[in-house]
Automatic annotation (TrEMBL):
<dbReference type="Pfam" id="PF17814">
    <property type="entry name" value="LisH_TPL"/>
</dbReference>
<dbReference type="InterPro" id="IPR001680">
    <property type="entry name" value="WD40_rpt"/>
</dbReference>
<dbReference type="GO" id="GO:0010072">
    <property type="term" value="P:primary shoot apical meristem specification"/>
</dbReference>
<dbReference type="InterPro" id="IPR054532">
    <property type="entry name" value="TPL_SMU1_LisH-like"/>
</dbReference>
<keyword id="KW-0853">WD repeat</keyword>
<protein>
    <recommendedName>
        <fullName>CTLH domain-containing protein</fullName>
    </recommendedName>
</protein>
<dbReference type="InterPro" id="IPR048419">
    <property type="entry name" value="Topless_Znf"/>
</dbReference>
<feature type="region of interest" description="Disordered">
    <location>
        <begin position="289"/>
        <end position="310"/>
    </location>
</feature>
<feature type="repeat" description="WD">
    <location>
        <begin position="890"/>
        <end position="931"/>
    </location>
</feature>
<dbReference type="InterPro" id="IPR011047">
    <property type="entry name" value="Quinoprotein_ADH-like_sf"/>
</dbReference>
<dbReference type="InterPro" id="IPR015943">
    <property type="entry name" value="WD40/YVTN_repeat-like_dom_sf"/>
</dbReference>
<keyword id="KW-0677">Repeat</keyword>
<feature type="region of interest" description="Disordered">
    <location>
        <begin position="1071"/>
        <end position="1108"/>
    </location>
</feature>
<dbReference type="Pfam" id="PF21359">
    <property type="entry name" value="zf_topless"/>
</dbReference>
<dbReference type="InterPro" id="IPR006594">
    <property type="entry name" value="LisH"/>
</dbReference>
<feature type="domain" description="CTLH">
    <location>
        <begin position="34"/>
        <end position="92"/>
    </location>
</feature>
<dbReference type="InterPro" id="IPR027728">
    <property type="entry name" value="Topless_fam"/>
</dbReference>
Length: 1108
């Protein structure tokens, strides 16, 4: 079917809907397969009309089309089956089981058997997995949420879930136009033709009387719209006078379309009025508000005028013997006062954030201070001049009890939360954060390196789409808009393509007018607030960047240069009252504000996503742009580069401290971006770094006030100290109940992906699970050191015990992996690999019988049915669980496999072995790309386990060996940094792991210490002594007790769990007042306050140089 025929179907669907032919609408939706009406589908599911639900679905997909379709039909039929059981209709349930659910048994025989066994129970809720099944209405609502996700993910429903944006009664309008044209072409047009049929073309029969006046003889005019429109004065906030209202009504009547009587919203008259009406016949009241002068877009904007085409243009020329006053333009001469060099196009540097960057904003006064929001809900404050992350705040609900019931319900399901907007207040004293679900957070920013919690507001039902600060009545306010369409904003945009102008009086919007693209739009003012711009994207992916005539609500100019259809809204920004920048097609495109054509573009040396987000600083000399690898780049012009260099630490400078802003302020003059470092000598033991001064100013000519300011600032800078936690009162600790078992060490430790539990594998092959209860003390139900969890077991009393038949437990190498949805755990302890159901603890299947034994397990990140299994004989098996088959065997190591890590960004699997080797494999072909040895420090043996873990950017990688921690760039397999045990942490490393946000590394040592390192620099930030978590009796005992493993909480960046060789498990968190483990150390090594810092080295050092 052609695209026009397809569009005709949509027009017919709209007509049937408007005429209330409900059954016909949904039948056509199904038969055409063009539009899946989610609302109708929801209604039928909620009503339990299962036959109609499946019948409607059958127009779009069949059971066996793909795994999404199969899951959709399974969920529906399962619900139908459970409802029959709940009504005690066993016969009906058997009928559903045999007739509807049997088809799924070929794919999962075990599940079908389990469903069949429900028939034997008096109440199916006795089954553990169904124990939380509520009433029918609630169950249907929960299922609907899952169904909607499956439908949206199903490729067969792509482009079928959104109805095209159409003006109301579009089909009627097209017929009206046709009849108007037919009437225009009549040889003898009558002023009041009688049109009685649409089956034949219209033609006026000749008359004996005088002919009606033709449109050509009329003065300046416009073609009438086919429907009547309310007089403009009716929309005014000031009511028109009676005379004006009467005149407006008369004008509206004169403007009736040719088929006004047939239109649903037209007057009763069916006669055709004159096809044109003079423009002067519509009076405008003198007190009309200027913003309402032209609520519809003028003909100068392409694509925005009804019925605009070449024939229409020709008719307009015939109707306009003289030009309209509104078409008169006054050309002005303008001198170009800018150059391309003013644009920040040079890449200064790239920073990695660890999660996709969703929003950025520069500080309004400190132009190198950048606020960054991420897809994992975290916000981070960067000092760009120092290339330093000053403070980071992972997403956390401050007080669940004050949140709405809807939001609390979302959190029960562990809904992911991302940042949708971060912004500074105009004075830079506050930070506002809008999240993808319900919340906004307000922080106070008293200094450049601190954010203090101020307000948490459950602002909207659904996502908070935007947030801004405003000063109505000289009072600082936050204005937001959200998915619930509650908008409290001066200028706001909506997904129906309307731009709305609001006032601060809670009386609703004053006017709305069409946004280009009629869909999602963002708006910005120029730096001086004098010019208004918007960038919108249509449902078809067309992007529109325009400037508005704000007083008239009309488009002033439309910028050209977009090439690619976009799946989202294009990000744009303004700079220096001269330039516009937009991120599109993996490029940054620039326009000069007064010219519609593209000025220039840059790809920022590559690595940008399809729709990068862009943001200028206030001076316009720096530009932040997001990257595809979860980071951002800073672009600069020459002035911006100088401002960044001015704040860089000198090459001889041993220390880095927070910027002392007072030190760069010259008496009686404003701060200048162009600054440079003072050339002076600083002793290595001095805690003070050289202070920047104004570039080009003679030091002897400075005012006497400045040295005093520098000295005052210096006095306040304290030398950095390593945070050492020696006592339990200095942090929060909880020991998991029933965990201590001296006969079984904790050899593997995992948090559940939902963050509500911990899973420990003992050296005896038994796995234990602890879950945290949801209560007043712990409203989130997540793991916390504030609450003691429950040792969880199913009612059957089963233990998750690995196959250890004929296995020497002393020699066995245990391994474990958890599925993404926490439903299954896979583990082995020298014997066969067992797959356990996490709800019932039953063994679902076993595979990979030794020899050789399995030593490491990792789920493929894109397919839970594919597992990479490291083996005792140094090989790696790529195993497909569904078909019980080894697809590939990878050989490249000399000893057993001790670590496996996937990177989807790089398309690789990295393996590590007891041979101290790293191998890189392609996950497409499973061919080996590279093999390198880790660099063992001099005098150390290359023995013991080597483990690998990817940073959240999927590029950097942590390599852990008892002799070292190392960071590698996996794209090149080059070592970036290395740390070796020394100083306060001299013992061998037993285990290490990234924190959930990849900003810290938690490492455990064989002397019982725990170290928290900065993940970027590998500098020790905090040391936790064993006296914190071990009792005095244990410390005095004969057996040395220390952690064998450490695990990081999946969402709490400062929470870790350690598994000890006495079988116990501890959870550690910093005190609530501290909130984090110590502070970032200075940038270089040396003596700080009498103590030597633990050093890290970069890749250009040799192992011999590491020993200091």
């Amino acid at each position: 079917m052609s695209s026009l025929s397809r569009e005709l179907v949509f027009l017919i669907l709209q007509f049937l809907e408007e005429e209330k032919f409900k059954d016909s609408v949904h039948r056509l939706e199904k038969e055409s397969g063009f539009y899946f009406n989610m609302k109708y589908f929801e209604e039928k599911v909620q009503a339990g009309e299962w036959d109609e639900v499946e019948k409607y679905l059958s127009g779009f997909t069949k059971v066996d089309d793909n795994r999404y379709s199969m899951k959709i039909f399974f969920e529906i039929r399962k619900q139908k089956y459970l409802e029959a059981l709940d009504r005690q209709e066993k016969g009906k349930a058997v009928e559903i089981l045999v007739g509807d659910l049997k088809v799924f048994s070929t794919f999962n025989e075990e599940l079908y058997k389990e469903i069949t066994q429900l028939l034997t129970l008096n109440n199916f809720r006795e089954n553990e997995q169904l124990s939380k099944y509520g009433d029918t209405k609630t169950a249907r609502s929960i299922m609907l949420i899952e169904l909607k996700k499956l439908i949206e993910a199903n490729p067969l429903f792509r482009d079928k879930l959104a109805f095209p944006t159409l003006k109301s009664s579009r089909l009627r309008t097209l017929i009206n136009q046709s009849l108007n044209w037919q009437h225009q072409l009549c040889k003898n047009p009558r002023p009041n033709p009688d049109i009685k049929t649409l089956f034949t073309d219209h033609s006026c029969s000749p008359t004996n009387g005088p002919l009606a006046p033709t449109p050509v003889n009329l003065p300046v005019a416009a073609v009438a719209k086919p429907a009547t429109y309310t007089a403009l004065g009716a929309h005014s906030p000031f009511p028109p006078t009676a005379a004006a209202a009467a005149a407006a009504a008369a004008a509206a009547a004169a403007n009736a379309g040719a088929l006004a009587g047939w239109m649903a919203n037209a007057s009763a008259s069916s006669s055709v009025q004159a096809a044109v009406v003079t423009a002067s016949s519509i009076p405008v009241p003198q007190n009309q508000v200027s913003v309402l002068k032209r609520p519809r877009t003028p003909p100068t904007a392409p694509g925005m005028v009804d019925y605009q085409n070449p024939d229409h243009d020709q008719l307009m020329k015939r109707l306009r013997p003289t030009p309209s006053v509104e078409e008169v333009t006054y050309p002005t001469q303008r001198q170009q006062a800018w150059s391309l060099d003013d644009l920040p196009r040079t890449v200064a540097f790239t920073m990695h954030q660890g999660s996709a960057v969703t929003s950025v904003d520069f500080h309004p006064l400190h132009h190198t201070l950048l606020l960054v929001g991420s897809a994992n809900g975290e916000i981070t404050l960067f000092e760009l001049g120092m290339r330093e992350r000053l403070v980071s705040k992972p997403f956390k609900i401050w007080d669940m009890s004050t949140c709405s019931v809807q939001f609390q319900a979302l959190m029960v399901n562990d809904t992911p939360i991302s940042v949708s907007r971060v912004t500074w207040s105009p004075d830079g004293n506050f930070v506002g954060v809008a999240f993808s679900k319900h919340l906004i957070h307000l922080y106070a920013c008293p200094g450049s390196n601190d954010l203090i919690q101020r307000l948490e507001i459950d602002a909207h039902v659904g996502g908070v789409n935007d947030l801004a600060f405003a000063h109505p009545n000289k009072q600082l306010c936050i204005v937001t808009c959200g998915d619930d369409k509650l908008i409290k904003f001066i200028f706001s945009t909506a997904v129906d393509g309307k731009i709305k102008a609001w006032l601060y009086d809670n009386m609703g919007s004053r006017v709305d007018y069409d946004a280009p693209g009629h869909w999602c739009t963002t708006m910005l003012y120029s730096a001086d607030g004098s010019r208004l711009f918007s960038c919108g994207t249509s449902k078809d992916g067309e992007s529109f960047l325009v400037e508005w005539n704000e007083s008239e609500g009309a488009i002033k100019r439309t910028y050209v240069g977009f090439r690619k259809k976009s799946a989202g809204v294009v990000s744009f920004d303004t700079a220096q009252n001269h330039f516009l920048a937009a991120g599109e097609d993996s490029q940054i495109k620039f326009w000069e504000m007064d010219t519609i054509n593209l000025l220039t573009f840059t790809d920022a040396e590559g690595g940008l996503p399809s729709l990068p987000r862009v943001r200028f600083n206030k001076e316009g000399n720096l530009l932040a742009v997001t990257t595809a690898d979860n980071g951002f780049k800073i672009l600069a012009n020459s002035v911006g580069l100088r401002s960044l260099r001015a704040m860089e630490p000198s090459s001889f400078d041993p220390l880095r401290t927070p910027i002392v802003s007072a030190a760069i302020k010259a008496s009686g003059s404003p701060a200048v971006a162009n600054v440079g470092p003072v050339s002076c000598k600083v002793e290595r033991s001095s805690p003070v770094r050289p202070s920047p001064i104004l570039n080009g100013v003679d030091p002897l000519g400075r005012s006497v006030e400045k040295p005093r300011v520098v000295e005052d600032a210096t006095d306040k800078v304290k030398p950095w100290q390593l945070t050492e936690i020696m006592d339990p009162v200095q942090c929060r600790v909880v020991t998991l109940p029933e965990s201590t078992d001296t006969s079984s060490k904790v050899v593997r430790l995992l948090y559940t992906n939902s963050g509500v539990g911990i899973l420990a594998l003992g050296s005896n092959g038994v796995q234990k699970l602890w879950k945290w209860p949801r209560n007043e003390q712990n409203p989130s139900g997540k793991a916390t050191a504030n609450v003691v969890p429950q040792h969880w077991q199913p009612n059957s009393g089963l233990l998750m015990t690995n196959d250890v038949t004929g296995v020497s437990l002393e020699d066995a190498v245990p391994c474990i992996a958890l599925s993404k949805n926490d439903s299954y755990v896979m583990s082995a302890t020298g014997g066969k690999v067992s797959l356990f159901n996490m709800m019932t603890f039953k063994v679902m299947t076993t595979f990979m019988s030794p020899p050789p034994a399995s030593t490491f397990l990792a789920f493929h990140p894109q397919d839970n049915n594919i597992i990479a299994i490291g083996m005792e004989d140094s090989s790696i098996h790529i195993y497909n669980v569904r078909v019980d088959e080894v697809k590939s065997k990878l050989k490249g190591h000399q000893k057993r496999i001790t670590g496996l890590a996937f990177s989807t960004n790089l398309g690789i699997l990295v393996s590590s072995g007891a041979d101290a080797q790293l191998c890189v494999w392609s996950i497409d072909t499973w061919e080996k790309r590279k093999s390198i040895p880790i660099q063992i420090p001099a005098g150390k043996a290359p023995t013991g386990d080597t483990r690998v873990q990817f940073h959240s950017d999927q590029i950097r990688m942590l390599v852990v060996h008892e002799t070292q921690l190392a960071i590698y760039d996996a794209s090149k397999m080059e070592r970036i940094r290395q740390w070796i045990p020394q100083d306060v942490l001299p013992a061998p490393i037993s285990y290490a792991a990234y924190s959930c946000n990849s900003q810290s590394i938690f490492a455990t040592f064989c002397d019982g210490s725990v170290g928290i390192f900065d993940a970027d620099s590998l500098r020790l930030r905090c040391r936790i002594a064993s006296t914190v978590y071990l009792s005095q009796a244990t410390l005095k005992g004969t057996q040395a007790v220390y952690p064998l493993v450490v695990a990081a909480h999946p969402t709490e960046a400062n929470q870790l769990a350690i598994g000890l060789n006495d079988g116990s498990v501890k959870v550690l968190e910093p005190t609530e007042s501290e909130g984090k483990w110590g502070v970032n150390p200075p940038a270089d090594n040396g003596m700080l306050n009498g103590r030597t810092t633990s050093s890290s080295t970069t890749s250009n050092h040799t192992p011999d140089q590491l020993q200091r």
